[in-house]
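Bench notes, afternoon.
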Amino acid sequence: MLSREEFAALHRHWMWANVIKSHFDNAIADAKRRGVSSSPEQLFPEPFGAYMSIYYGMLYGLLEVLKEKGVSIPKIQGDIDSIFDNLRLYRNAVFHPQPKYWSPKFFEIMKDRDSAIKIGNVHAGVGEFFLDELGRLNSGQPGLYVR
């Protein structure tokens, strides 16, 4: 369970991640227009790589707290579980400089060819979770995960 304060803080974090995701989406569309590939060699020097890395790290931080608090979102829980550990490695590589430029921590998430789709599903599902809980709380009903 989450307190109302924790819920509000997590919602704020999701909104920030959503802003960064928007920048990521725009940057990748721009790179495609310019004919830039999404290969690892292009990932790090291009803006879309920076936005993706910050976005993935922020999303992981949010998922980590939800997991610690026992919040399960049935619609996307399978996707969360399948990306969680590799997203943690990616976040660690982003926010903790690695001794190797091509740290394997960056690439574990990419071994799952569906990881980008799963991450998109998780992001949308967490957004729906917040809307649903806010709707309940604003209507005076008890939240499923918020006390």
